[in-house]
Design brief:
Residues 1-234 form the Transposase IS204/IS1001/IS1096/IS1165 DDE domain. The protein is of the alpha+beta class. The chain has helices at residues 34-45, 62-71, 81-99, 110-114, 122-131, 139-151, 161-173, 178-189, 191-195, 197-200, 205-221, 227-238; strands at 2-8, 11-18, 23-29, 55-58, 76-79.
Length: 247
């Protein structure tokens, strides 16, 4: 199972995706816990068994978490890697914004700290190398290395993952960088779901691919006038509907 929300103007459409079959099972307006309730009712109405769902992947939205816990108590939650790393990227960027007020050397460097090193152009990599030298003693550089070390968490084995995460958490919370400490506390409050990745190995990658198809269809249609029309198109594009007539 996979779930997320997509913005359309001032509206949101939440998608519930079957990761095994790479298809949208249910789409509904909204982004709160009631979307999970509607999915459960739709699943039951179509002969599905909510109790049979063992794994769900989502972002760290409190509304979705409470909805899953209430309506799918048997399911384990895995927090999507992209959204976990987004928390850290936002913290690094906050450190940079605060520090750049007094350190003009950071001007124009925002995307250097947000990209992975292997995605940087040669000129960007050279600029980053200059900014991370020890003599500059940039807080942003320290925050960046805390983020990079967290990314290594996903390269651990299931046996060593929690020990690694505990050591990282201690480092981050003793960094004297308030945005990084706050990000670490956020991860701590979602500890089990972060570690669950080593059991479920699921993320929102399939959903991102489906969303690309939806966005392409919206662009061709120059948008959809109503939410109902958008949801209908989502089912046609990504629902893998079967239109075979009975014989």
């Amino acid at each position: 199972m996979d779930e997320t929300s997509r913005r359309r103007g001032h509206n949101y459409v939440s998608l519930f995706v079957d990761l095994d079959e790479t298809r949208v099972l249910f789409a509904t307006g909204g982004k709160d816990a009631s979307t999970v309730d509607r999915f459960k009712r739709d699943l039951t109405d179509h002969g599905g068994n909510p109790g049979a769902i063992e794994e769900m992947c989502c972002d760290m939205s409190p509304a979705f978490i409470s909805g899953v816990e209430k309506h799918f108590p048997e399911a384990h939650i895995t927090f999507d890697k992209f959204h976990v790393l987004k928390v850290l990227n936002e913290a690094v960027d906050q450190v940079r914004r605060e520090e750049s007020k007094d350190r003009p050397v950071l001007k124009g460097s925002r995307y250097l700290w947000l990209k992975n090193p292997f995605n940087l152009k040669a000129s960007q990599a050279e600029q980053l190398e200059q900014l991370t030298i020890k003599k500059l003693n940039l807080k942003t550089s320290r925050a960046y290395h805390i983020k990079l070390n967290f990314q290594e968490f996903y390269n651990q084995t299931a046996r060593t993952a929690e020990t690694y995460l505990k050591k990282w958490y201690f480092w981050a919370t003793h960094s004297r960088l308030e945005p990084m400490k706050k990000a670490a506390y956020t991860i701590k409050s979602h500890w089990d779901g972060v570690l669950r990745w080593f059991t479920s190995r699921i993320n929102n990658g399939i959903l991102e691919g489906i969303n690309s198809l939806i966005q392409a269809a919206k662009a061709r249609a120059r948008g959809y006038r109503t939410e109902r029309t958008l949801i209908t198109m989502i089912y046609l594009i990504a629902g893998k509907l079967k239109f075979d007539l009975p014989t």
